[in-house]
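Contributing new complexes? Match this layout with pyridoxal-5'-phosphate.
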Amino acid sequence: MSNLSQIFYTKPSITQKEIDYATDAATNGWGARCYEYITRFENLLKEHLGVNYAIATSSCTGAMHMGLSALGIGLGDEVIIADINWIAPAAAVTYLGAKVVLVDILPNTWCIDPSHVEKAITKNTKAIIAVHLYGNLCNMNELLSIGIKYNIPIIEDAAEAVGSIYKGKRAGSMGAFGVFSFHGTKTITTGEGGIFVTQDAELHEKVLTLSNHGRSRAQYKQFWFDEVGFKYKMSNIQAAIGCAQMERIDELISKKRIIFKWYEKKLKGLLLSLNPEPLDCQNGYWMVTIVVDKNISFDRDLLLQEFKNNNIDGRVFFWPLSLVRKDDERFVKAGENSVSYDLYNRSVNLPCYNDITEEEVDRVVACIKRIIDQK
Ligand SMILES: Cc1ncc(COP(=O)(O)O)c(C=O)c1O
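Output block (do not edit by hand):
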């Protein structure tokens, strides 16, 4: 067992401000003040993202579930999403009885490939989910054009994309709706939590009703509900932590970018690529990731073992969902998805928690060099 200090892959940055706000919410945030931090948190997000409407939720998965439901997605419908993904947005599709149609990714962004999206559209396609993976941005111009051409809403899962900006617009603000996660591993955290955001007044109203167990704002009768909805609310105490984080958002995003630059400089010359940052875009670099070139032999397990021996958290790239759910008929593999199947085994997420030091980054880089130089 190594006596080196542990290097976490992610861990939130919590200061006295978060502690003070949470303490205030626990002490005073009840009765008439029970929604104060929630409203403030929603307003801070709206301002940051440049959107008109926001509904704080208990998770990003819940926000996605309600958004898809408000769009009327249900039994027999199809929703297109990239094969390489975390299960959360796809799981929300299955909750509604719809099918998850898995398409390939682009080799440079690791996000959904618009040309494969277009090929996978059928008369049953009711939505396309653009997941901005690890902070990398989907090609939104192409996806939005496809959405207009076929009259299909483009939804943004920006759980991993706080701080990412696509041609002047923040991730999460461009689609029919966007969702974010504030799980403890994310750039902004509330412990667990999420948010639904949109520019669409009507969609906002529908999700607001759904989020209140189907009670519309206009409903004056007590405990009367207009439809069967959901209960995915964020608590005032969680929102208090979120407000403190939002007041520090520029600092939190810029630290992510500093960490990325450390890795970029120190890994220079090795046969691998890191998260891209296309022209006119800013990457929030939630998760610094390496993809080792395919023309060199690389054993991912060897690198993960080297990390373990040095008390460093290693994290594998997401698996293709069509591989994990091979025999599940709710998940349909739309094509060969050869980029997804080729890439995941050559890819590893690197520790990039907010308070990581440059010396700790050096320790991570030394492990990578030992394994990659061993050809
Ligand atoms: C891309 C993506 N979508 C959705 C989620 C789900 O977020 P939550 O755990 O808040 O439901 C995550 C969380 O890890 C994620 O990475």
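Reviewers usually confirm one structural detail per submission. For this one: The pocket of pyridoxal-5'-phosphate is lined by residues 59-61, 86, 88-89, 131, 157, 159-160, 181, 183, 194 (CB under 6 Å).
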